[in-house]
Amino acid sequence: MSARCASLAAASDPRPEESPVSDKGWNYRTVIEPFRIKMVEAIPILSASERRAALDRAGHNLFRLDAREVTIDLLTDSGTGALSAEQWAAMMVGDETYAGSRSFHRLEAVVRRVIGHPHFFPVHQGRAAERILARTMLSPGQVVLNNTHFDTTRANVEQAGALAEDLPVAAAAVPEDESAFKGDMDLAALDEALARHGERVALVMLTLTNNAAGGQPVSMANVEAVSARCRAAGVPFFLDAARFAENAWFIHTREPAYASWSVADIARRLFDLADGCTLSAKKDGISHIGGLLTTRDPALAERFRNELILGEGFPTYGGLAGRDLEAVAVGLEEALDPDYLRYRARTVAYLAEGLLAVGVPVVRPPGGHAVYLDAGRLLPHIPKDAFPGQALATALYVEGGVRGVEVGSFMFPAARLQLVRLALPRRSYTQAHVDYVIEVAARVQARAGDLRGYRITEEPPFLRHFSASLAPLG
Ligand SMILES: *Cc1c(COP(=O)(O)O)cnc(C)c1O
Question: In this predicted structure, what is the pLDDT of residue 24?
């Protein structure tokens, strides 16, 4: 335990989030998990030959592994977090009344406090909010501007016949760049796009944190600047707020003007600057399912309501059970707890530092929910079209049963970077699990030169990474 505690200590060159910034003045170098474990779930531990057999059966595609074949599952942080005792207790009093349930009103009170937009609708998950937004606000030929569209947001915008244009800052594409807010929107590019598309711009969005760009945060200064430009141009400005609390934490720790603000006040200011939001409660709602759609505009709310009834259900439950509304209500506030956020950011940074220390290059600085391993740099002998990210991801699985996901040319044929994402489910794994992942990665790193690339043997017509089969080369 003592070795682990020592290794838990902040690195010699602490980033701001490792310094004592708690509202309660946390002044220990060891950042502890701010919870104890009340219920456990056994995790499968397989032999190397069992893992190799599982990988063969899955066509070397980690999405096709079963839960019983995975030891540490870092495939996604979406809907995979551990609920708190408070959430389970709230779920037991969930009100399953069809219209006007108590659970809706409980969630409404939380949304009023945390987000503050006057009209809100629960939905079954984030993409349902995006679909309603796209179907009510967009028509063919219009344009949506975003720091970087998440893939479901892009798909919904394109389904409506509109153009989804990404305007990330240049630093977002440079893994070594240590800038604090690599999730920002490029303001000069925004000005240019607003001028170029004119009236066709139907909506501007900011994704907090910028998931597709490595979970990198957006600064308050950037949100303010984008908000002001939208107001001047008369264009609605929405947040894709899936990780609003993690983003607020990074503002608290990295943007000096907000060091003395509470995380909840920072989050509220983010929402104050926007006209509405979509939100996946599977992320910073710390729930297994759920989402939200909000707006300030009563006329738009009426259109949202009509579209929601078509696909999600009555507006006071929106595709969710009453108990889910309760879990989201409690989770949204728990996600803003600075003790939780400090631990969460520290866990991600600790994994990133540990990987770097054993010679595995990662995207810097560590983001809010995941660490991205730079397979292109670790495996320079494997060309892009032989999927170095997939080679690294499968090696981590065979070595230690760790499941991540390739985010490179297997997932996106045009990808420039060849990455493997290790996403951390909320409150689910301990520091020993993270130490184990680092040890597994160190062993893979030691034989990196022996790893071979892949070819695809069978692929579906779209979104191939979910179901394609691969075979190792040579
Ligand atoms: C997960 C996610 C979504 C979609 O939410 P779901 O609940 O998975 O439908 C949208 N935007 C971002 C940034 C996300 O991370």
Answer: 63
Pairing of strands 163-166, 237-240: unpaired
CATH superfamily of 3-70+338-472: Aspartate Aminotransferase, domain 1 (3.90.1150.10)
Cα–Cα distance for residue pair 446/443, rounded to 1 Å? 5
Return the pLDDT at 415: 84
* Separation CA 76–CA 59 (nearest Å): 20
Known catalytic residue at 95: no
Q: What is the reported pLDDT for 392? A: 98
- Give every residue of the chain whose pLDDT is below 50, as ranges: 1-21
Ligand 1: list residues with CB < 6 Å.
78, 125-127, 150, 152-153, 207, 211, 240, 242, 280, 282-283, 291
In this structure, the residue with its CA closest to atom 8 of ligand 1 is 126
Is 412 marked active-site?
Answer: no
- pTM value is 0.93
Q: Which one of 104, 150, 304, 340 is the catalytic residue?
A: 150
* CA 315 – CA 308 distance, rounded (Å): 7
Name the fold adopted by 85-334.
Aspartate Aminotransferase; domain 2 (3.40.640)
H or E element that contains 458: strand 454-458
